[in-house]
Amino acid sequence: MRISFAGGGTDVAPYPEREGGAVLSAAIRRYAYASARIREDDQFVIHSLDLGLVAQGPIAELSELDQQLHLLRGPISRLAGDDRGVELRVQSQAPPGSGLGASSTIVVAVVGALLAAYGRSAGPHRVAEMAVSIEREDLGLTGGTQDHYAAVFGGFNFLEFNDDEVTVNALRLPVSTVATLEHNLLLCDLGSSRESATIIDDQRERFERDSESTVRALSRQKELAVEMKQVLLSGDLDGFGGMLGESWAVKQELSPLVATDAAVRAYDAAISAGALGGKITGAGGGGFMLFYAPFGKRFEVAQELRELGHEVLDIALDDDGLQSWSHD
């Protein structure tokens, strides 16, 4: 899964087709897992280990799959044959609505597992493109494209989105920079998930009708992604952390649905305790918030957020991206 720092929203159509988008994000060590086994009959069997659900039926009846398992219908429909079924097990370390790209990461994991099970190969760009197409076209789910590329490629990336092309620029950061970020960045669970599609639909509608605040905010988000990349590469990590605050302020201009009372209280408390900046990690409306607290203030910031009733989690960055393999 991933944390995003700036540029969120510029990867959501129709903005990248018209203006070109840019996102700065990093993959973290929270994962979605999937295993697939080809069957000799035409049945699909799905085990959702998180939800405790099991579904079974003919491949031809995938469209009737339980709504809670709808994300899995797309990859199976796209990759499974009509006459040979598949048994699929899926587990995620974060729920949909967390703001960590969980839903898209699940799709990527299932695509990777199915490709391995069927003995097919595909490069990382192709896997990401396939996952985007499955979620946005086959399933008709609203959203952007940054999450799929973060899940497939891993690492710290500056992503550029244009009409029909995504460019993944991997940032090679010094070990000291990564270690400092892992120490100073905190994830705060706001304790509520959100339906990102509602917020994204509102943002898209505002952009399409040329809402001045939304158009300006999207342009500034793209600029911030570039500026934060440059500050990060220069080694000014406190400056980078402070810019998270501007990213959060600009993000709130995209839609009035972005900020919740809980998010505002958490942000104010963290800043008062010494955090230099912070922002919501996904579309908004709930999920996780990300904060940057300098070394001497990290404990105080975490304690203040816990006193508000929030769980505070450490962050570890991940360089590997999607890993798929076959076994007996």
TrEMBL record:
GO terms for molecular function: ATP binding; fucokinase activity. Residues 231-309 form the GHMP kinase C-terminal domain. Gene3D superfamilies: 3.30.230.120. Keywords: ATP-binding, Kinase, Nucleotide-binding, Transferase. Residues 80-155 form the GHMP kinase N-terminal domain. InterPro entries: GHMP_Kinase-Related (IPR052203), GHMP_kinase_C_dom (IPR013750), GHMP_kinase_C_sf (IPR036554), GHMP_kinase_N_dom (IPR006204), HddA/FKP (IPR001174), Heptose_7-P_kinase (IPR014606), Ribosomal_Su5_D2-typ_SF (IPR020568). The keyword Ribosomal protein does not apply. Belongs to the GHMP kinase family. This is Unannotated protein. The keyword Kinase applies. GO terms for biological process: GDP-L-fucose salvage.
